[in-house]
Write the structure tokens for this entry.
Amino acid sequence: MKLTKFVSLGIALLLGASGSILSSSRALGAEKVVLTFGPIRQTINITDLEDFAKDGTTTPTLQQIIRFSKMDAQVLRGFMGLEIGLKPANLARVVYSTPGEKITDDIGQAIRTQRRTESGKALRAAVILASGDDGKVSLLEILKKYPLNEVYVDVASLRTAVGKVQSIAGTLQSLLQDVTRSTTRTTETNPTERQIEPRRSVQPTTPPPAPRRAAPLPAPAPQPVTPVRGLW
């Protein structure tokens, strides 16, 4: 399924999609996670990561990645369960704002698509879809809702991604307030409707021409004098 379709689902949640869309979206998402560290590439099932986040159970593949990356297993486990709580509509307003897109684009360097294209868009869609279930988002939920069959995770970049996710969790309310203020200012500056003023009548700039005088009538022709009988 195309990435743009999943991005559209994420935006639909921003606009207040119905519960039927939310329930159907649970069946969508990545089935496998490709863990990369330099030239090393190992595929692990989402269910294995769920077990790891739940009780710390590790598979040989996961142990190998942790050993090569020299990342503490408990740190990685804590990152899997780190949750951010916010209503889907408010969370969408944050991640689709200018600073939110910058942060998710940066995190998209670690949690990415295979070809590293549109990773930020895919991550934002996964975040919104993940928050639609219970209003909370964790890395594990994002991986499960990632809008592709496979999601690539660069283990070497996870430390930086952890810091950015923690910064989002700490400043989420502040970002939301900034976005709200920015939207309010834009609305006040650019009203959608303008009052139509009545057109004023245009006054003539030149005097009207003087009325033309009628030509004088010709004088009546003289009538011949009729002689009076009895005088001649």
The chain is about 50% helix and 10% strand. The two ends are 133 Å apart (CA to CA).
